[in-house]
Amino acid sequence: MDLASLPKDQLMINALKRWLKPTRSRLSRRIVFYVFVSVVVIETIILIPSTMKREKELLQQMRSVAWAQIEVLMTLVPDTAGASQVFDQVRQLQGCSEIVGGTLYDLDGDRIGSFGEPPDISFSEVTAAGVQQAKSPDGRRIDMAWRQPQLKKANVLVLRQDATAVKRELEAFILRIAGLILIISIFVTVGAWSAMQPIVVTPILRLRKDLVLAGEAISNDRSTPDFYAASVHRRDELGDVIAAFNQMYRRISEAISERRKAEAALQQSLEQVRAYTQALNTEMERGREMQKNFLPAMLPQRTGWEFAAFIEPARQVSGDFYDVFELPGGSVGLVIADVCDKGVGAALFMALFRSLIRIFSGQTSLQGLDCHITESPENSTSPEAPADVRLAHRTALEAVRLTNAYIVKNHEDLAMFATLFFGVLNPSTGELSYINGGHDPPYILDNAGTIKAHLGPTGPAVGVQADANLEMRQTSMAPGDIFFGYTDGVTEARMVQGEFFGEKRLLRLLKAGGYSAEGMLKNISEALEAHIGSAEQFDDITMLAVRRLP
Which residue among 405, 431, 497, 503 is least enclosed by CB atoms within 10 Å? Predict the structure, then answer.
C-alpha cells in the first residue's frame, strides 16, 4: 500500500506503533526502567550538595548585605559615644533589608538592648561556641552574630533576619534542578529504549526463534534451517551467545549423526542377535524334541504292574532322565538319574549315560572296552552282594560299573558325573536288585502308605572314580507295594520366598497311601506346581513310580 494515500492520522498511529513496539519487550521495559531509575538516583545525589551550596551562597549574600548596613551605621557613631548611643544607631537597622529584630550585648555579656523579634542565639553561644548564624526550625528566620573588633563599642551584636526569600529561592532552585533531572532522565530513557530494539531486543527475539527452529529440526529429524545466527557476526557479549548457539547446534547435529550411525549399527547387531537367537531357539527346540525321543515313548505293559513317569525340565533340555526297558530274561530295567549341571551339556551327557546303561546291560561292547560279563560269582562288583542275587540281575547291574569306567576313561577332563539309580525288576517274583550311585534314595511303600524300604546309596556318583565300589543290593515288592524314585529337583523346588518343597512335604504326600502309579505322580506334581507358583523353576524335576497291583 502507498503510504502517501494513507490519512495523516493513520500515518501518525503507525509511526506511534513502531515507536512503541519496543515496549512490548519485557527485557526492554526492565532495562529501560533500570536506566531511568539509575539516572534519577545519580541526579538526585548531585542535587543535594548543589542545594546546600546554593543555600550557603544565599545566606552569605544576606550576611554581606547586613554587614554593609552595620558598617554604614558604625561610621556615624563617634568614638566617644556610649553604649546607649551605639544601640540607638543599631535600632535603625529594623525595617532595613530583611532585618526584623536584634540584640546588642556589652563585653561582660550584659544585654544593652533589643528591638523587634528577639534572636534565638545567646551571648554564650556566640562567645563560647563560636556560633555565627543559625536558622529557625521552620527555616523562615535566620540569626546572624558579629563580635569585636568588628564593632566599636559593643562586644556582640545578634540580628534576626527574614529568610523567607531564601527559602523560596531554594525551592525554586530545587524545582529547576528536578525538572532538569526529569528531562535528562526521559531523554536518556528514550535514547536507551530506541537503541535497545535494533541492538539487543531484535537479535534476542531472532535468536529465540532460531532456538525454536533448532528444537523442531532436531526433534522432527529435519535438515538444518536457515538460522539468523548463521549470518550475524558481532564482537560483543550477544555475539558470543550467538557464536555459542551456532557451536551448540553444530555439536548436537554431529552427535545426532553419530547416534544415528550407532543406532543403525546397533539395529544391525540386534537383527543378527535375533536371527542367531531364533536359530539357537530352533536348535534348542530340536534338541528338546530329540531328548524327548530318547525317553521311552511308551512304558512297558506287564500284567499285574503299573509304570508311570514324569519329567519337567528347568530349561529347554534336561540333565535328568528316567528309563524303563526290557532286559533279557523278562526282567525290567528301571533307571532314574540326574546329571550334574543343567542345560545343553547336561542333556548331552544324559543321552550318553542312557545309551551306555542300555548297551552295557545288554552285554554289548563299545570302543574296544570288553563288556562281556562273566557268569562267575567272583566277577561281581561287590563281594558283599547277597548270594541269592540272581546272576542275570548282576549281569545287568554291571552296566553301572562299565558306564562309570567309560565316563572316567574318556571324559574325565569334563568333570561330568551323574547320580543314578538302576534297578532290575523281576515282574514274576517282585524281586528288585539295584545299585544306587549317590542318588536320592527311592521309597517302597505299601498300599496304606507305610514306608517298607528306603533304597539308599550303595556307592558314589557315576563318573567320579574309576575304581568306585558300586555295591549291588536286593529288595522285593509285595502286591499293593509302590516304588517311587525322584531327583533332587522335587525336594529342592522353591517358592517365590525361597522356601524349599522339602522331604517332609514329599513324605506327607507319599504316606497318604491308596495311590495308583499315575495318581501318585499326578498328586505330587500338582503339589509342586502350587508350591513353586510364579517362581522360576530352579532344577529339573523327574519322578518314576512302579506299582505292583494287589
Answer: 497
CA atoms within 13 A on the CB side of 244: 6
pLDDT per residue as tens digits for the range 84-112: 777 887 788 877 778 888 888 887 788 88
All cell numbers assigned to 478: 509285595
Residue type (1 letter), 394: R
Strand (E) or helix (H) holding 324:
strand 320-326
pLDDT digits (tens, 9 = 90+) for 519-541: 999 999 999 999 999 888 888 89
Residues forming a β-bridge with 99: 161
Over range 197-209, report the average pLDDT: 75
Q: Bridge-partner residues for 431, per DSSP? A: 476
Q: Is the dihedral of CA 327, 331, 332, 337 positive or negative?
A: negative
pLDDT tens track for 299-356: 888 999 999 999 988 877 778 889 998 888 889 999 999 998 777 777 888 888 888 9
Place of cell 506334581: 525
Grid cell 531472532 is found at 206
Question: How many helical (H) and strand (E) elements, i.e. helices and strands, does the chain have?
Answer: 12, 15
Q: DSSP assignment of 257-312, as one string?
A: HHHHHHHHHHHHHHHHHHHHHHHHHHHHHHHHHHHHHHS-SS----TTEEEEEEEE
Cα separation, 493 vs 138, whole angstroms: 104
Spatial neighbors of 236 by CB under 8 A, at least 6 apart, are none
Q: Which three cell numbers stand for residue 164?
A: 523567607
Grid cell of 370 as nine digits: 570288553
CB 264 within 8 A of CB 254: no
> What DSSP letter does each residue of 477-517 carry, written as one string?
--TT-EEEEE-HHHHT-B-TT--B-HHHHHHHHHTT----H
**C-alpha distances out from residue 446 to 431, 479, 549, Å:** 15, 8, 11
- Its pTM stands at 0.53
